[in-house]
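Hi there, hope your week has been kind to you so far. No rush at all, and the record is pasted right below.
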Amino acid sequence: MPVPFIDLTRLVSRIREDVLPAWAECLDRCEFVGGPRVTAVEKKLGAVLGAPHVVSCANGTDALLVALQAMGVRRGMKVALPNLTFWATFEAVAQLGATPVLVDVDPDDLQLSLPELRSAHDAHRFDAVMLVHLYGWTSARLAEIRAFCKERNIALVEDGAQCFGVEVNGKPVLAEADIATLSFYPAKVVGGAMDGGALTMQSKEREAFVRSICNHGRSDHYSYAHVGWNSRMGGIQAAFLLRVLDELPAILESRRAAASWYRERLSGEKGLRVYGPPTGVTENGYLNVVTLDSKRGQEVVDALKAAGIGAARTYPEPMDAQPPAREAGAIVHGDLAVSRRICERVVNLPLFYGIRDDEREAAANALVQAIR
């Protein structure tokens, strides 16, 4: 039988009977925008993430836009971000009229490189940094990156779309972030029934600003303090997320076990490298990440799919390769050699909640066969 890259039905089937009556109640009460379940999910997210304040929104990309705006980013500013990330990280900067500064990643943990960030700031004097917690872990130098930004009065926005459940020395990774964003796209570790997002922050004042920005910049029902966005969550989504959050321990256990198994199984194989969290970081099992020594990633993914393995490539192209990056006036710092090479060579094997032993074994065996 084919092995899917992701199978959402394994979680949905587990929570379905609890979600349906909650959805019926939402319909009966017309909890379509906001409501008590949205408040409840924000409180639950804060408790799980160790974040003092949480505001929900419509999707993870909106969360990035609002976070940048909350940190004072505006047209004409420069914002550094990794060249290896999802397009939304870049997109949010460009949509605000700021200039993206593309910085390379670390060759070992694949997160934003601190040495490259330092040299980029010397060269370009950016005003803000987008730090992406990529692949289900975070940087080995997270504390240093935060300190670097604080010492130089650089605004720091942490893109946490892929890091739900990640811990650093036993503490949730976003607990001390000035401002961070979440995505509840269905394929995430904590995925919703539709697009969804949230922001975490440290102060009541910032929470009030973010709530206003997410609701058209309102100060009162028909009074406005800011030019904002229309980005709100409703009860249907919140009801689903509340039930998914109940399953978080099981989700993390399943994903982490699969990610660890892949690393142990593949670490001794010639022709590839398996990546994982740095020392002190507990991953969430979001992705299996492998790079190939001599073969191109797409060549191997095509072979895996032909063998019935739903492999993927996250991400096949870096930011600097996207045509709109040039149109947005992006600044390229350095040669970006690491991110370009990773994108060319990366392969991801199936990894999701409920993946079976035989499925991951079939995927690993097929990969080994494909590179020989």
About this structure: The domain at 248-371 is CATH 3.90.1150.10 (Aspartate Aminotransferase, domain 1). The first helix runs from residue 9 to 29. The mean pLDDT is 97.
